[in-house]
Amino acid sequence: MVHADQPIVIVGAGCFGLSAAYHLLRRGYVDVTVLDRSFNLPAPDAASNDLNRIVRSSYSDSFYSGLAREAISSWKDVKEWGNTYHESGVLVLGAPMEEKTYVDQSYTNDVALGAVVQRLDNVDAIRSVFPVQIHTASFSGRTGFLNRDGGWANAGQGLSILLSKVAALGGKIFPGKAVKNLIRKEGRTVGVLCEDDDTFEAITVILATGSWTPSAFPQLNLGCACLATGQSIAMVQLSEEEADKYRLCPVVLDFSSGFYIFPPNNKNVVKMAIHSAGYTHTREAVSTPRTISSDPVDGHCIPKASLQELRKHLRSVYPDLADKPFSNTRLCWYNDSPDGDWVIGRFPADSSLILATAGSGHAYKFLPVIGRLVADLADNKLDPKVAGKFAIDRVYLGPDTSRSGPAIELDLDQLCTQQDLEN
């Protein structure tokens, strides 16, 4: 257990890192330092810094459903989060009846937890959840449900608010501090060494470095526990008049294809993506994020095949938008675990090193509460069952059932061009 006056260093100012810092400071820890490689925070290429993220409790795993309900309760507190959270509802679609076990279990968990949900067993029921002026696809053969206790969060805004909260509580935040090595003494981690040769001593070091974790710390030999994958995102810019038509639409999340799409944000941008196994970018035998920071010219480009897939799925929800040009794209880099569960645990044989990562594409919605799990671990108070679920060296019993794989190696010769966005 760490004492309240002992130094804790958190590497990474994203979802896991900032939430952990916040909860530690709230518990009375007085020497919490957050380091981040980016000179600008939130980091422009961090997965948790984006236009929006889905906020849903619709999980087939009741642990996440329950924790998401807690997070949603916090998101609704406008004194804490302002207008970060938008309760548009989440339309959850599945495959034909015999194939949609994930959706069925999600519905069961939502109902058990008291969420306001509406079963949608036919085409007319699905189309009824959209504003009457919206021309949707037919949704032929589809079923699903609408969870009204969910929606989306302005991801970048949420991170900025939490940065301010951490600073207000006395947390020390250092941007532009890329960590190049762990300082070890007698078999335990006692601090970090930065690229500029600054050192930070700590009784506990928490690595919350997201998709950069495997490549930044190859000495940890994380193997299959963490894999950096790029997820394809595209945006459509609407006029104010067009956006007003779609503004009251729910988030649409189709688990049969992985496609999801948001209502327009305050800048009239509609964002869509595919929740899939994604793309790897292998450098020195480790998948490494390729972003606008490492590749400013085309680090935002996604594969042409993904662009075509996104347009096809857009047509399957909003046909009137499917022929509009894409205004932008992004490869959003996740740190994935094989089973989709997070990694929140002490490193084997080194109890002073904690990993808080492997968000696997579904951590941001838990921003207000996920750091509590990390703080519980630091306090040696984490429920043993939960600790086992998120242990670094756990046995992986099965794949992430919310998406299919395997990941595909990124072909840099097949990235989309500006012309591709317009067709």
UniProtKB/TrEMBL annotation:
SUPFAM superfamilies: FAD-linked reductases, C-terminal domain, FAD/NAD(P)-binding domain. One of its GO terms (molecular function) is sarcosine oxidase activity. Residues 8-377 form the FAD dependent oxidoreductase domain. InterPro entries: FAD-dep_OxRdtase (IPR006076), FAD/NAD-bd_sf (IPR036188), MTOX (IPR045170). It comes from the Eukaryota. Keywords: FAD, Flavoprotein, Oxidoreductase. The keyword Oxidoreductase applies. Signal peptide: none annotated. Pfam families: DAO. Transmembrane segments: none annotated. Its cofactor is FAD. Belongs to the MSOX/MTOX family. This is FAD dependent oxidoreductase domain-containing protein. It comes from Laccaria amethystina LaAM-08-1. The lineage of its organism: Eukaryota, Fungi, Dikarya, Basidiomycota, Agaricomycotina.
